[in-house]
Design goal:
CATH architecture: 3-Layer(aba) Sandwich
Number of domains: 1
Low-confidence stretches: none
Protein name: G domain-containing protein
Number of helices: 7
Largest sheet: 6 strands, mixed
Shape: globular
Order of helices and strands: HEHEEHEHEHHEH
Organism: Astyanax mexicanus (Blind cave fish)
Structural class: alpha/beta
Strand order of the largest sheet: 2-3-1-4-5-6
Distance between the termini: 33 Å
Strand content: 5-15%
Number of strands: 6
């Protein structure tokens, strides 16, 4: 819990060592309201030392507030660009008429979608669309797929949403793109111990049970599921939240770099 600056310096010093690559592209997807945009803002907040709102958020969202394909460059408080781009997409929903089309998650993984493309829940992007990239570069492609789910609702996720997430995971596997899970809202009402003291997170059986449920439902082993607490109500940052967020990003960066090298 005292290694925040060490983690920040570790992430600042990452070298990609690839002539075609300036940034690792990390795609966030998951159900509506899980905290995808909030996680992007929380990562930025950890580096800036103050709560930052860059990606659009909406409290108690029933429908996705993200309608277009957005890319966010992670920067430091000194406006130094770090080698990470987060792509935020429309949330997944159970019905076919709402939420992101699962085929567009696949198109994003392959690097076929330009920034600011507006998603159509009933129809994925076509090759005739001006926002379709026919010959994506290594920089256009995704280097890590991150499923964002809420610890407080993992047991209530609708089967159709889990199935849609499974489509993306299977495609990522065939493309050798690593898949991890960010589990948000761990200090909600999931565990009184953790709600009182976030540093007890690795001592909580209830949180471990939630991690196990994520692994069973979504596929990745428990070691690739990272519990975090986003900044969703605070006005100031704190080191405990920052350390959890930065630890997750360190691991994501490690496995994404291995993907690029291979």
């Amino acid at each position: 819990w005292t290694h925040k600056e060490l983690l920040i310096n570790q992430l600042k010093s990452i070298q990609l060592n690839h002539p075609e690559l300036q940034n690792l592209r990390i795609l966030l997807h998951g159900p509506v309201g899980a905290g995808k945009s909030c996680f992007i803002n929380s990562v930025m907040s950890a580096f800036h030392g103050e709560v930052v709102t860059m990606a659009r958020e909406q409290a108690n969202a029933k429908k996705s507030c993200t309608k277009t394909y957005k890319a966010y460059q992670i920067t430091t408080k000194d406006n130094e660009n770090l080698p990470f781009i987060f792509n935020d997409v429309m949330g997944l929903e159970a019905t076919e008429e709402d939420g992101m089309h699962p085929d567009d998650v696949v198109n994003a993984l392959l690097g076929h979608i330009r920034e600011d493309y507006q998603f159509n829940p009933t129809c994925p992007i076509s090759e005739k669309d001006p926002s379709f990239i026919r010959e994506p570069s290594l920089q256009d492609k995704v280097h890590c797929l991150v499923s964002v789910v809420s610890a407080s609702s993992i047991s209530r996720m609708e089967k159709d949403v889990i199935n849609k997430m499974g489509i993306a995971r299977e495609k990522a596997n065939t493309l050798d793109i690593p898949h991890v899970v960010i589990m948000t809202k761990v200090d909600d009402d999931v565990c009184p111990l953790v709600k009182k003291d976030l540093q007890k997170i690795y001592m909580s059986k209830k949180i471990k049970d939630k991690v196990c449920a994520c692994s069973n439902d979504l596929g990745p082993p428990m070691k690739l599921i990272f519990p975090v607490s986003n900044y969703y109500e605070e006005n100031e940052t704190n080191d405990t939240k920052d350390v959890l967020i930065l630890l997750a990003l360190v691991e994501i960066a490690k496995i994404a770099r291995r993907c690029v090298r291979h």
